[in-house]
Amino acid sequence: MKYILFLIVLLAAGCGEAPVRKEAVNPPDKRDEVVLYALGLMDVDYRFGGGNPSSGLDCSGMVSYIYKNAVGMKLPHNAYRIAKISRKIGRDELKPGDLVFFDTLHRPYSHVGIYIGKGRFVHAPGSDGKIRISNLSSRYFSSRFDGARTLF
Length: 152
Known about the structure:
By secondary structure, the protein is α+β, with helices and mostly antiparallel strands. It has five helices and eight strands. It is globular and about 35 Å long.
């Protein structure tokens, strides 16, 4: 009788489904979303005070627009104010999606871009340009580098 009961238990166990293990699904990395959104704005026209790609973007307008649409983070449309609400990090700590600031108007944090890796960043360079990629080690930007900051 013990053997029959044992066989019944074995057969019943064999007919059952194995428990399904649910893997944790990680949401897309927010840093990647910021970088992809920034790269999607390449060649958009610069416009002082601009906050919309259809009419043009300035540097802080670009950053605000990207963070709002890529990760739902509302930022001020002002490079200095963005710097003040972000956390300072070392240049060697930069990760894609972090912010790089420059003194381009003889005042701190007057220009901002989004770091994309390998010493490069996306920014809206000025009234004669379009959103583009530049290098932190270029003579112009290396001499005006004002710090790295993060919102993550």
